[in-house]
Amino acid sequence: MINKIDETRKNFDDDLLKINNLSSLEDLRIKYLSRKGTVSQLFESLKDVPKEEKPKVGQALNKLKIHTQSKFDEMQEKLKENNSASEKFLDLSLPGRLHTIGSKHILTQTLDEIKNIFRGLGFSVHEGPELESDYNNFEALNFAPDHPARDMQDTFFVTEKFLLRTHTSPVQVRLMTEKKPPLRAIMPGKVFRNEAISAKSYCLFHQVEGLYVDTDVTFAELKGTLVAFAKQFYGQDVKYRFRASFFPFTEPSAEMDVWWQPKGKSGRWLEVLGCGMVDPNVLRNVGIDPEKYTGYAFGMGVERTAMLKYGIGDIRILFDNDKRFLTQF
Ligand code: PHE
């Protein structure tokens, strides 16, 4: 019996060393000190001990009980103190953890703004594929196979007859072939040119094409629409001008310039879009009678438009995806 008591004490001490929280301490209490615990059971078996040994065993048992109970109390005290100490260090005034939220790329924002302005002017939005036929990209738009104007746009050819579109104007051809006038739509999308990459040009950029075909569409309406757009987009006091120009698919053709005035530097005119009256040959190519219908078209670069509005000096930065740049917008 004395041996059993010594063994229990040793086991208890070993188990106590492993305790590091209040719930494992509770397990320890149940194992040794509860009504069915080891210590209580030893007291139970005291009745079977021969009379003459009883005082000695009883004494040893009492010692065990005092030992285990006081160690238990000590440990409980210590753990409770630890708990309240960590509660004291919970600083509720610390700022919360912020989750960063993504935002739209500046090009998408610019495109959304352009779309919204033209929607307000009665244009719908129409899209076409980036891989185009030579016919839609050039031939139907009045670029003859050996037309020198093809040199204006350095083309990525995929096969002899298919290419990555060099402008959004082929979507005009698709729209006019699919639907009959009156037509009024803008056509946003990516375009590709095999150009040397520099601060001013990139192999890929975005354009927004505009087309309006109906009876009696005039150049004055074209100008009116583009001026209304420029005022909404760049501001009411925007300085603009139209210059005569050339495109194979419009006649007459013009380019619109906007005055660019960086702070503290000398300003200059920047070309923002090309436009003109749809060439009768183009209307004929898509099966629209040029005697009955007229139309205007325009096309602008989204990168250039964003760069002008937000004072961005290098087109490449729009494709770098550098967070330091993107988070400014
Ligand atoms: N497609 C022409 C370009 O990429 C722009 C343009 C579109 C000009 C429509 C006139 C009419 O340069």
Topology record:
Blueprint: H1 2-17, H2 22-32, H3 38-44, H4 54-88, H5 106-120, E1 124-125, E2 131-133, H6 134-137, E3 162-164, H7 169-178, E4 183-192, E5 204-214, H8 219-234, E6 240-247, E7 250-260, E8 268-278, H9 280-285, E9 294-301, H10 302-310, H11 317-320, H12 323-326
Parallel strand pairs: 1-4
Antiparallel strand pairs: 2-3, 4-5, 5-9, 6-7, 7-8, 8-9
Helix pairs in contact: 1-4, 2-4, 5-10
Your description of this structure?
With 329 residues, this protein is of the alpha+beta class. It folds into 2 domains: 87 residues; 221 residues, 2-Layer Sandwich (BirA Bifunctional Protein, domain 2), CATH 3.30.930.10. Helix content is 42%, strand content 20%. It is built from 12 helices and 9 strands. The strands form 2 sheets. It has a 7-stranded mixed beta sheet with strand order 1-4-5-9-8-7-6, with helices on both faces. It has a two-stranded antiparallel ribbon with strand order 2-3. Helix 1 runs parallel beside helix 4 and helix 5 packs across helix 10. The protein is rod-shaped, with a radius of gyration of 42 Å. Bound molecules: phenylalanine. The site of phenylalanine has 11 residues, from strand 8 and strand 9. Phenylalanine binds next to strand 8 and strand 9.
